[in-house]
Amino acid sequence: MEQTMRAVVLSEPGPPERLEVRVLPVPEPGPGWVRIKVEAFGLNRSELHTRLGLAEGVTLPRVLGIEAAGTVDSDPDGVLPRGRQVVAMMGGMGRTYDGGYAEYTVVPRSQVIPFASALPWETLGALPETLQTAYGSLTTGLDLAAGQTLLIRGGTSALGLAAAALAGDLGATVLATTRSPERTGALAAHGVDHPLVDDGAIAAKVREIVPAGVDAALELVGTPTLPDTLAATRVHGTVCFTGMLSNQWIVHDFYPIGYLPSGVRLTAYAGEAADLPAGVLQRTLDRIAAGELSLGPVHVYGLDGIRDAHRDLEEGRRAGKLVVRL
Known about the structure:
Blueprint: E1 4-10, E2 19-25, E3 33-42, H1 45-52, E4 62-63, E5 67-74, E6 85-89, E7 104-108, E8 112-114, H2 121-125, H3 128-141, E9 149-153, H4 158-170, E10 173-178, H5 184-189, E11 194-197, H6 203-209, E12 214-219, H7 226-231, E13 233-241, H8 256-259, E14 265-268, H9 278-289, E15 298-301, H10 306-315, E16 321-325
Parallel strand pairs: 9-10, 9-12, 10-11, 12-13, 13-14, 15-16
Antiparallel strand pairs: 1-2, 1-4, 3-5, 3-7, 3-16, 5-6, 6-8
Helix pairs in contact: 3-4
């Protein structure tokens, strides 16, 4: 008898109602692929972009989800033992092949990172893609060092909170923005040194705190705020474009001399599973378990609540990471 599973399928772009929980056959892994029994998965802007029809290179119908956390259920090559705790992310998950919004997912072994932790699955499910992107943005994207100042544009997003925690842990001074005045307290409680209310133009506020401009800035809102973020950054400082909470990522009629302040550097970061070293993942999990580090709040849903979760994601109702626990 064929094994079946429940999964979230998107057949065509549209509102959250287009997300359907269906019964599908459990997928079979081929050589070089691994089947994971999914325990939890995080929601990402990538899946929102796919649902809204904004993502390129996606084929439908598709089980969404660019990340998942769970245990190895089958590895035809015998490399990973059954029951091994793993996370998987990126590499086409939920875009060109079925992803993590399911009870089981099959992914290339190259996208799988093993770990060992007694943390709850909803905590583990919140980490993979957020940690990979925050870590990569601060290292590859910004080369952030202890003693430097960092501005995070979009500070109450899951990625913004994770980046603030990692940057503070490194020894940087962190400024982070929120559009909601009532969330500044949450940013401060999370360890942000200077919470800022974002009205679309915060460069002057930043320079009241750091007159020469910040050493580094992480742009998570998108192209609407990028010029102002660049204006808040010092000469020879670096802005890393990583996120697009605004769902806008194109700079039209880009004229570098007119767009970039003299001497301010603009980079970007978009990483894969290989960009998150297993040691960094394990060390982060161990420090969270010891109470030494927090990457921000986690909001948990069931699989049948996926539409509500997507509404909350799209409307920015919650600060922190949204996770589905199976």
